[in-house]
Each structure stands twice: as structure tokens, then as C-alpha cells.
Amino acid sequence: QVQVAESGGGMVxxxxxxTLSCAASGRTFTNYDIYWFREAPGxxxxxxxxxxxxxxxxYTADSVKGRFTTSADRTKNTAYLHMNSLKPExxxxxxxxxxxxxxxxxxxxxxx
Length: 112
Prior knowledge:
The chain has about 110 residues and is mostly beta strands.
């Protein structure tokens, strides 16, 4: 069974950048794409971006397109969410998912 764990959250000023990591474990983790979601207070969890381990097509939500990108390093068992030009509305708990496994999330706060 695949397990994932996020890290890298924190507080950043508007316009700043942050990179989140999603460490995957399990014998078959490369069989499953990594999906990034976020959940802001009072809002439903929403899809942010996806990434494959094999260089396939990655997807990003319209709300973050042009600002967020993804990458994955199989040698490190880690996928990344690179966030640039952050806005206060990007404040949320960010989760990664692989197959049916979710991490516990990492808080991102964009504020002055």
C-alpha cells in the first residue's frame, strides 16, 4: 500500500514562493500519479495539480495555472508542488494523494 506525507508548508508574504514536498513510500508508488489538493477554511477540498512519475502530462487547476508547477523525482520518492506569485487566497492546508492514500496535510499561509 502506498503512503504519502507532505512537508514544506509555512507562512509567506504575497508574491512569495514556496515548494511543498510529497514523500511517497510503498512498493508500487510509481504506479500512481500524485495529486495535490487544498482545503481552505470553510471551503471544500479542491484539486490543485497532478504529476506523474514517468514524465507524462501534468495538470493544474485554472486558479493556479501559470503560478504553480509540479515535478517528481523517482530517485528520491518525492513529488513537489512549486508555488510562485502566492496570493492570500492560496492560504489553505495542502494535501497530496496517491491512489487512495492521503497525507495529513501541510499548512500554507499567505499574509503580510
